[in-house]
UniProtKB/TrEMBL annotation:
Tagged with keyword Transferase: no
GO biological process, one term: riboflavin biosynthetic process
Binding site for NADP(+): 158, 200, 204
Assigned protein family: In the N-terminal section; belongs to the cytidine and deoxycytidylate deaminase family. In the C-terminal section; belongs to the HTP reductase family.
Species, as recorded: Rhizobium leguminosarum
Function, in words: Converts 2,5-diamino-6-(ribosylamino)-4(3h)-pyrimidinone 5'-phosphate into 5-amino-6-(ribosylamino)-2,4(1h,3h)-pyrimidinedione 5'-phosphate.
Residues that, per the record, bind Zn(2+): 54, 79, 88
Cofactor note: Binds 1 zinc ion.
Name of the protein this chain belongs to: Riboflavin biosynthesis protein RibD
Catalytic activity: 2,5-diamino-6-hydroxy-4-(5-phosphoribosylamino)-pyrimidine + H2O + H(+) = 5-amino-6-(5-phospho-D-ribosylamino)uracil + NH4(+); 5-amino-6-(5-phospho-D-ribitylamino)uracil + NADP(+) = 5-amino-6-(5-phospho-D-ribosylamino)uracil + NADPH + H(+)
Enzyme Commission number(s) of this protein: 3.5.4.26, 1.1.1.193
Length: 373
């Protein structure tokens, strides 16, 4: 059967549904599934919080007997392997679905192509690649961790009209207005972890949590690049580490010379013990080598990372070529004397990025750029 406008319409709805639980399904992808019978949606679901149950089994359960002879629209190829739950491909077969429409084939070697093959072996018609670009965008974090062994990295910058991201010695400076800041809170809520450098952590004393009412429980893991363990015990990050996890990434053990080590190791050990006593996790992994750090974060189940603080940290990830998406907010305010220059503006976006859209939030403009997955 050829793909129809109806197929694209239902898949677009499934993709929108899949975004509901972004950043909240642990290591599993947030997948959307619709069961459609005679043009009517009879079952719908998104991967449950924590990653289980999967979308397909929930949607089939809702559809019940109406699933027989129906079409299932799934944003990611149904799993075919036995893990902590039975394969979704087998559930689709058991319920008697006649056709399965898929947006993205799963790169997981346990699944890739096998789910489709199993469905076809059961005489179920399968069409894959429907709205694939849109599906891949919604699954970007999962696909990046699967194919590149690292999280999907978003760099967010708010830049003043005179090209600044802050002011020296002024702490947090409001550059964008409330509408744009609310949008950033929504981005945090769908991201696994947020990262800043120690300079930003000290100068701004940020919380880095989700502040929007009703979304506070979706705050991401907070990560600070801190080579010498300088994060103050009095900081708001440390003070809230038992409520929302904080990871401090410090220099690798043994990276100092013997002379330096004799002097510094005792001090750093004392700082580490104090931070850990306050609930902070201290990780030894060169903080200024993101090509090493990102795979280490992926092993912890972190699939998406928001880099939000500090010109130096932004340059670090940009120069390493490890930014996948740039969200560039441009505001009409002026910072003036003492401003901290942005590492990036709309005229010098690195090669390989495509401009994917512009949105206005009050007087602030958001331009988004993405690399191909």
């Amino acid at each position: 059967m050829s793909i129809t406008p109806h197929d694209e319409r239902f898949m677009a709805a499934a993709i929108r549904l899949s975004r509901w639980h972004l950043g909240r399904t642990a290591t599993n992808p947030s997948v959307g599934c619709l069961i459609v019978k005679d043009g009517v949606i009879v079952g719908r679901a998104v991967t449950a919080l924590g990653g289980r149950p999967h979308a397909e089994t929930q949607a089939l359960s809702e559809a019940g007997a109406l699933a027989r002879g129906a079409t299932a629209y799934v944003t990611l190829e149904p799993c075919s392997h036995h893990g902590k739950t039975p394969p979704c491909a087998e559930a689709l077969i058991a319920y008697g679905v006649a056709r399965v429409v898929i947006s993205v084939t799963d790169p997981d070697p346990r699944v890739s192509g096998r789910g489709i093959a199993r469905l076809r072996e059961a005489s179920i018609e399968v069409d894959a690649g429907v709205l694939e670009a849109e599906g891949r965008q919604s699954l970007a974090a999962y696909l990046t961790r699967q194919t590149k062994n690292r999280p999907y990295v978003t760099l967010k910058l708010a830049v003043s009209a005179d090209g600044m991201i802050g002011r020296q010695g002024a702490g947090q400076v409001a550059i964008t207005g409330p509408e744009a800041r609310a949008q950033v809170q929504a981005l945090r809520a769908e991201t696994d972890a947020i990262l800043v450098g120690i300079g930003t952590a000290i100068a701004d004393d940020p919380l880095l949590t989700v502040l929007s009412p009703g979304l506070e429980s979706q705050s991401p893991i907070r990560i600070v690049l801190d080579p010498s363990l300088a994060l103050p015990l009095t900081s708001r990050l440390v003070g809230t580490a038992r409520e929302v996890p904080v990871i401090v990434v410090t220099s690798e053990e043994g990276s100092l010379s013997q002379a330096e080590g004799d002097i510094a190791s005792t001090e750093m050990e004392s700082c580490r013990a104090a931070l850990e006593a306050a609930g902070v996790e201290v990780v030894h992994c060169n903080p200024y080598h993101p090509e090493v750090l990102l795979p280490a974060l992926a092993t912890r189940g972190i699939s998406s990372l928001l880099v939000e603080g500090g010109a130096k940290t932004a340059r670090l990830f940009l120069e390493a070529g490890l930014v996948d998406r740039i969200q560039l907010y441009q505001a009409p305010v002026m910072i003036g004397e003492g401003g901290i220059e942005s590492p990036l503006d709309a005229t010098d976006i690195p090669s390989g990025f495509a401009h994917t859209g512009t949105l206005m939030f009050g007087g602030d403009r958001l331009d988004e750029y993405e690399r191909g997955l």
